[in-house]
Structures are given as C-alpha cells and as structure tokens.
Amino acid sequence: MVASTIGYQDTTLAAFHDTLRQNGVEVLIDVRAIAASRRPGFSKRLLANGIATFGIDYLHLRDLGTPASGRQAAREGRTAEMRAIYEKHLETPEANFAFMELKELVRGGKHICLLCFERDHKSCHRAVLAERLEQGIGAKFIHLEPLPPQP
User: Fold this and answer.
1) Are 115 and 29 in contact (CB under 8 A)?
2) What is the model's pTM?
3) Which residue of 6, 15, 59, 136 could cross-link 144, Cys pair, CB 3.0 to 4.6 Å?
4) What Pfam families does the record point to (predicted)?
C-alpha cells in the first residue's frame, strides 16, 4: 500500500495539480479542519472541482484536522506541542472514527494523498497520520513536494 502526503504552501495551483498527476494520485484526502484557504484554488469546492478535471477524487475528513490550539502551535513553530495536541485530538470519538475511515481508504488499493497546508510534512499533523498508518497497517508514504513558484 503506497500513499502520499502533500502541502500547498509556497506553490502554485498548476504545480500542485502537476505533482498530483505525475505521482498517480487517485484520491486527495483533505485533512484540514477548515477546508478554506486564502490561496486561490485551494478551498474545498474549487480544489475538488479542479482536480476532478484530472480524474482525481476529493474527500474532506474534517475530523482529522488539527484543533485551533494545534494550528496556532504549528504557526509559531512549536511542532512538538502541535504533535502532542494532535495526538490527544486523535483520541476523540470523532477523530477515531475518521481515522478508521482513512485506514479503509488506504487499504482500498487506490493511491490516496493526504493534503494540508505546510510544505514540510514534518511540521504538519499529516506526518502523525502517515506514521500511524505505516505502523498500524504497513502503508508506505511518499511525501510529495510541488515545485515552488519560479521568480
């Protein structure tokens, strides 16, 4: 089971789309608590419609998003604190249910890709999800990095 993660920080929508296509992503799973963005094309509906033109499905698993306190810690570079907040969040019934759904999607055989904002997966909660899936069901994750904008 091969899966991937991706962040859209410091990239263009075109480079993001190209990265998904070039890596054979079939289902983009949005793990943001709030699937909205100030970046054009990265909000839920526009993102889903945009990738659909390339035959990529979209699913928003809101309950796997980071709570507000975790997002604040991440913005301030307090990654260990963000991870601790997120680990505790994953113990909630809602997050646990969403994680079980995610596990089934990964087992389903399609190439899924977890989406959040941060370019570096190590500073994002999607790394926690990837680690749990690697340890729990033996999934192998590739962390995709779209090209940054050219000057």
Assistant:
1) yes
2) 0.94
3) 6
4) DUF488
